[in-house]
Specification:
With 312 residues, the protein is an all-alpha fold. The protein has 15 helices and two strands. It is globular.
Length: 312
Amino acid sequence: MSQIPSVSTPDRAAFLTGIFAMLGAALAMSISPSLVRFADVGPLSSAFWRVFLAVPVLWLWMRTEERRPGQAKGKTWSLPIVLTGIFFAGDLLLWHLAIMGTTIANATFFATMAPLWVVIFGWLVLGQRAERATLGGLGLCLAGGATLIYQSLALDASHAVGDALAIGTGVFFGLYFLTVGAARKETGAARVTFEMSLITIVILLAAALVVEGNILPQTAEGWSVLLALALVSHAGGQGLLSVALGRLPTVFSSLVIFLEAVAAAGFAWVLQGEPVSVLQALGGAVILAGIWIARPRAAPPEISARIDTPNL
């Protein structure tokens, strides 16, 4: 079914909740590139610990959510959840390698090109058509993101491998958006995040042991960095993303995640000494304009009555 970027008045509260959850997710995930560089383990090992250390928090969240009166458990270990875990593992494997092979601004921009892949795969696989406003907003977000990394790309051709890995990250991230959106129609946000994380852990552990061997951090500071990755970027970021995708159209949600590129550039400036120029700041403003243009509008009664409401 085509996604109509509009919301009816009764769904306004759920829509606003989704918006704030998506903004929180973008902010929580945006600090992860800097934390990955601070970790004293390899990039694949940090990807494993990022998910593994978050499991207790995700389990408590799931148990708390499902104990609420009237809260259905939903489908467990469904195909969309399994695919979400696989796609997220691919996303993290390439993402952490990309962070170490290019600038944080480059890696984040290419990774957040996920909306492009959401539109492409949504059309080819699911037969979904994006509205003109959504496509216009996507175009602006891509232009703004390109402006963010323009100077970085022009200065160092050695970033090519890292940039290619980040592009692959964006493909997996786009597939992740689509499968989480599908899973949230049948299952609560906490269970989706918990179950997909268990699948991701198995894949990441195998990859880290084969490629890097020693996966243990060497210092207390190293453990604290990994714990921050787990609690902020995974439990916080992916958890809020699952919440948002149960309340917002998938394509629009993926556009909001472009804010991760803006925030990541800011964190890289403060924590890694990668300055943000006036041109890059302008790119961030263009991204905000694109998200505003693509926002869902209030639907008239005769249209909103035909819109499928996602499970909350």
